[in-house]
């Protein structure tokens, strides 16, 4: 199967092609889609069925008008958020930003960037509402206009953010490689890109990529998942780690289902870490100390690896480096790996299992589209 990354497709479009896609997406989400009911599929209305209680509480605090305009394909709320500086790529009306503003606390900060005026107007309207709702003396959210492929034009500097999130937006970009490069640039060393997006099990053909509605519904711009893995490594990120995946069901839209044929699409959450340059990577034993809010007894790090509080776990060199160089450093005790023999089991998240990357391997999680004006069910 060949790579889809050329100058004429969803990885990188040329100047005129990119401008056209931007204009069509702005038209779709600025003029056509006013609430969730205006979407033609559920691809942009997916949420995990299991949500931690403290996250559910933050989501329920979002203003109903903002929640009614939520369009996302996952839960972009990583762990260990207190005091973090967060950037949301394609923040829309601010749904995820406001929930994250509650979770980072008054000492943290959340910046949302979006290219659509109509959505930015709604987000900015409710900044003070959420400041008061959370009991903060000053607002810890701001929204800037700009393109996620060109963050520098919006004034976003190198090595600024602890975490970048994005919810079903990267697929809308005509230049995914530029999005990853810019994200890598503005992340601090040790920072993380934690995002949900739509991916395909193969290259999406040209006749689908030319369909305006399919672009707006997050399907035409979906990458073949293997291209993401390659692009991320080329930019400098660690191996993307699969957190969760859910199949996109098009049964309720026969014309679209007929158009895509046997192509499968999934809603996927990945986490990508930016390690400091020249980081030494060595296998190690780690012990989770149970200090992450909402995850005191166990911490699910990705689809293969869940750390139990107090349990000694052998981890591979890359994961060892991630845990020591990221915001999780204070949540783990790290000690040298034991001397292994051929009879010993493989390290956590390595060996035969490998780092989880393929969203089509193993059972797909059930997803629900219950996030609406009344909050998440």
From TrEMBL:
Gene Ontology CC: one annotated term: cytosol
Key word Transferase present: yes
Residue ranges annotated for the Methyltransferase domain, each copy included: 83-235
GO molecular function, one term: arsenite methyltransferase activity
E.C. designation(s): 2.1.1.137
CDD domains: AdoMet_MTases
SUPFAM superfamilies linked to this entry: S-adenosyl-L-methionine-dependent methyltransferases
Catalytic activity, as annotated: arsenic triglutathione + 2 [thioredoxin]-dithiol + 2 S-adenosyl-L-methionine + H2O = dimethylarsinous acid + 2 [thioredoxin]-disulfide + 3 glutathione + 2 S-adenosyl-L-homocysteine + 2 H(+); arsenic triglutathione + 3 [thioredoxin]-dithiol + 3 S-adenosyl-L-methionine = trimethylarsine + 3 [thioredoxin]-disulfide + 3 glutathione + 3 S-adenosyl-L-homocysteine + 3 H(+); arsenic triglutathione + [thioredoxin]-dithiol + S-adenosyl-L-methionine + 2 H2O = methylarsonous acid + [thioredoxin]-disulfide + 3 glutathione + S-adenosyl-L-homocysteine + H(+)
Pfam families on file: Methyltransf_31
Keywords attached to this entry: S-adenosyl-L-methionine, Transferase
Keyword Cell wall biogenesis/degradation: no
InterPro entries: Arsenite_MeTrfase-like (IPR026669), Methyltranfer_dom (IPR025714), SAM-dependent_MTases_sf (IPR029063)
A biological process from GO: arsonoacetate metabolic process
Domain of life: Eukaryota
Protein family: Belongs to the methyltransferase superfamily. Arsenite methyltransferase family.
Identification of the protein by name: Arsenite methyltransferase
Annotated source species: Branchiostoma belcheri (Amphioxus)
Gene name linked to the record: LOC109462967
